[in-house]
C-alpha cells in the first residue's frame, strides 16, 4: 500500500494476503511483514484471522526479534472480540517480562484504557516510564507516547500533575495543550448545540489529528547501513571497488555514529540502523539490475531494509547493547560523548 493511499480506498484483506505472500519470499523479514498483515486483518474486521497470524509468529521455530510486541498485539486483538480472560493473562505476562521496547507497553496500556481499566492502564504506563525513561536525559522519541498516554489517563482519573506530566507538556509541540486535548469533559462538548463550543472542539480535534498524522508520517526510520566486521570483509573481498566507501571497519562504525548524531542535532527524528549481509545485498542488486560494485546502490539498499522493518532504533535504550555488536552497552561503547571522534 502506498503511504498516500487513503485508508477508505484500501482492500485490507487483499493487502494482508499480499503481505503474507511477500513474507514467504523474504522469510528473514517475516515478522515485520506478518505483523503488518495482521494489522490489515484487524482493520478488515477479521480478528480471528489476525490472531492466527500472531499465533503463527509465536509458534515459529526461529527466535522473534520482538516477542513482547507480538504478544501485546495479540492480547489487544483478542480483547476486541470477546476473549477478555486470555487477553488479561497475556497482558500480565507482557508486563512481567519488562520489555525494553516502548511499543508493547503502549499497546497493552492503551488496551486496558480502551476497556475502562484506567487504574491498570495508569500502572502500566508508569511502569514503562520508570523502566524506559533515562533520568536527566531527553526521552527517546519512541517513548513519547508513554508520557502522553500516562498524562491522558491521569487526566481521566483526576490526578494532579507530577514531574512526568510536566515533561510530557514540554515535549508536546501542538498549538493545543495536552491538558486541553486530554480533558475528560471534551466528549460532552461534542453533544453541545453551542456553535462556539463545537468550533473549539473541532480545533482541538484537528490539533490531535495533526499530532497523530505526524507520528504516522514516520513509518520507517531514517536508516544507516551497518556491515558487521565479517560481512564487511566478505563484501570488500568480493567487490574491491567499494573499498573507497569503507577504508576500515573502525572508520565505518565511526561514520555511522557521526552521521546519526548529526541528523539528530539537525532535528531529524526516528533514526535507525539496518544490518547488511552480502547475500541479501547481492539479491537486491540483482533485483535493481545494478552491479553490486556501484556505491549508489548502498543507500537504496539501506532504505529498502528499513522499509521491510529491518531497522533498529537509534540511539539504543538505556542499558541496551551497543548497535555495533561489541557486546558492551551503548553508553560504554559508541554512546560515549567522544566516541564519534575516536
TrEMBL record:
Query: What Gene3D superfamilies does the record tag this protein with?
Result: Tetratricopeptide repeat domain
Protein known as: Tetratricopeptide (TPR) repeat protein
Q: Which InterPro entries match?
A: SEC_C_motif, TPR-like_helical_dom_sf
Matches recorded under Pfam families:
SEC-C (PF02810)
Instruction: Check the record and name the SUPFAM superfamilies matching this protein.
Output: TPR-like
Amino acid at each position: 500500500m502506498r503511504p498516500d493511499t487513503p485508508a477508505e480506498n484500501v482492500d485490507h484483506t487483499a493487502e494482508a494476503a499480499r503481505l503474507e505472500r511477500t513474507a514467504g519470499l523474504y522469510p528473514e523479514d517475516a515478522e515485520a511483514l506478518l505483523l503488518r498483515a495482521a494489522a490489515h486483518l484487524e482493520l478488515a474486521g477479521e480478528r480471528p484471522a489476525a490472531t492466527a497470524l500472531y499465533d503463527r509468529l509465536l509458534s515459529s521455530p526461529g527466535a522473534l526479534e520482538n516477542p513482547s510486541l507480538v504478544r501485546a498485539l495479540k492480547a489487544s486483538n483478542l480483547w476486541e472480540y470477546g476473549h477478555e480472560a486470555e487477553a488479561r493473562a497475556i497482558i500480565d505476562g507482557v508486563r512481567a517480562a519488562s520489555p525494553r521496547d516502548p511499543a508493547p507497553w503502549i499497546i497493552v496500556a492503551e488496551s486496558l484504557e480502551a476497556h475502562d481499566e484506567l487504574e491498570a492502564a495508569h500502572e502500566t504506563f508508569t511502569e514503562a516510564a520508570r523502566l524506559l525513561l533515562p533520568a536527566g536525559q531527553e526521552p527517546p522519541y519512541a517513548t513519547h507516547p508513554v508520557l502522553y498516554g500516562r498524562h491522558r489517563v491521569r487526566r481521566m482519573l483526576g490526578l494532579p500533575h507530577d514531574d512526568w506530566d510536566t515533561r510530557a507538556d514540554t515535549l508536546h509541540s501542538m498549538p493545543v495543550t495536552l491538558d486541553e486535548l486530554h480533558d475528560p469533559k471534551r466528549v460532552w462538548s461534542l453533544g453541545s448545540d453551542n456553535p462556539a463550543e463545537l468550533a473549539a472542539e473541532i480545533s482541538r480535534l484537528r490539533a490531535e489529528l495533526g499530532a497523530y498524522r505526524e507520528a504516522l508520517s514516520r513509518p520507517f526510520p531514517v536508516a544507516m547501513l551497518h556491515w558487521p566486521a565479517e560481512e564487511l570483509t566478505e563484501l570488500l573481498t568480493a567487490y574491491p571497488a567499494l573499498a573507497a566507501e569503507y577504508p576500515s571497519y573502525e572508520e565505518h562504525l565511526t561514520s555511522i555514529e557521526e552521521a546519526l548524531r548529526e541528523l539528530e542535532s539537525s532535528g531529524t527524528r526516528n533514526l535507525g540502523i539496518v544490518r547488511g549481509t552480502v547475500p541479501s545485498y547481492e539479491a537486491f542488486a540483482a533485483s535493481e539490475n545494478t552491479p553490486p560494485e556501484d556505491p549508489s546502490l548502498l543507500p537504496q539498499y539501506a532504505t529498502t531494509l528499513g522499509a521491510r522493518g529491518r531497522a533498529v532504533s537509534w540511539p539504543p535504550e538505556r542499558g541496551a547493547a551497543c548497535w555495533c555488536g561489541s557486546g558492551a552497552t551503548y553508553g560504554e561503547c559508541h554512546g560515549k560523548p567522544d566516541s564519534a571522534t575516536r
